[in-house]
Amino acid sequence: MKRMKLFPKTFIYVFSLMAVIALVSHALFYFIMPIVYTGQRETAFKNVETRLINELKAVSNPSGDKIERIANKYAQQNQMNIFVHYAGLTYNFMGNGNSSDRNGTAIREEFKSYLSVQAGEEADWHSLQQDFYRKTNSQLSSGNNIHTMDGQPCFLILFQSLQPVNEAKGVVIIFLPFTLILSLALSVIFALLYSKKITRPLSDISKTTERMKELDKSALCRVETQDETGVLSENINALYKSLLATIDDLQKENLRVIEAEAAKTDLLRAASHELKTPVTALCGMLDNMIMGIGRYRDWETYLPVCRDMAAKFGEMIQEILDASKLNFSMESEPPEEIMLHTFAEKLLSPYLLIAKARGVLIVTDFSADFSARFPVSAMERVLSNVISNAVKYTKPQGTVRIYFAGKSIVVENECTPIPPNDLSHIFEPFYRPDFSRSRNSMSENPDGGNGLGLYITAKILNALAYRYDFKPVLHPEDDRKSGMRFTIFF
After folding, report:
1. Phi, psi for residue 146 in degrees, rounded to 5
2. Fewer CB in a 10 Å sphere around the end CB: N or C, the chain?
3. Which CATH architecture fits 6-168?
């Protein structure tokens, strides 16, 4: 039974219960029906007896005809035999309309049987006149001594046949097998319908959860009712949606971690490649100075150069460390609602001095102020890199423009536009356009960057889900005004 499926188990339970109910009800009907029927007949018999006695007692100046009419009426209406002994005469009224003699012979014989008078014994009528009530399997009978209104004694005997009870019991015995078979057949049909109705939602839930186990995103339990089964279906659907959402979040997080690890791996490989050549050059210069070869014998001239190169190595290593810790710092800093005007002016202060020293003009327009929500230190890093690159690569006497356009910050600088081939790689780590790659050991171009600024900027903006673009600005009528434009959309 424990291994049986829900439908046959429910069917067996329901059918067994209904079969027991049918059997018990038939048994109760068979045994209780005669008792109930006899009790009803007995009650009706006593009511008729009481009404007849009261009516006879109320008769004044009775005559035999009046007594006869009253007794005959009750006998006909209630299908019973009535014997009345009054004024020395005995009246016998039958329920079928027939009357017997008035000498009392019939009633004496009937009455003697009730009083257990032995056959052949004589018993005078007065000795037989006594109150009694008898009930047998076949009939009800009673005897009552009463007095009419004028004080005349009257002895009343009533007989009620119970033969219809036995006949009804025989009919019940004939029909009970058929009704029992019909009840059991109806029990089978109802048990099948009920079991199917009850188990179908649970079976559907079971099939749906099998699909859910395979992570079928289209699997949903049907909600057709508002009872416990419907609530269960809704709870399973809500739980499955929550599970799918959690799985999606975990997959996205897993992809993000994989991408972050791949980016760190690429960064370390690029850093190794980027550091390898200058470190080799630095070691070569130091070896030549130690061995006094060629111009490197003038170590007082080249030691400062080596020191500058070592300092730039330190800066590059620090930027590499910052880039590798970027994901951690982004996750640990909560965002804040910031007004961009105040934020940009505060960040711009040190670059005004750098631009002035390089002969570069910075023009700002923060009139279209707006607010945005972001981590403060992360966005400071982004704008610092963008503004620093703009000032660093602007032509002498050129202009850097910083302004708000809608919900975006725009940084433009006048410079040689980056070619499309270089622009497609500009956000890769350690990538520098040709004009910024000329950092040599003698540091003729000290402004050449490390190629990590825009890489870090792109990583932060991607993590914040902010859109950005970096494209050339061309002015064919005045080539000196051409340059690059970096836009951050909030």
Report:
1. -130, 170
2. N
3. 2-Layer Sandwich (3.30)
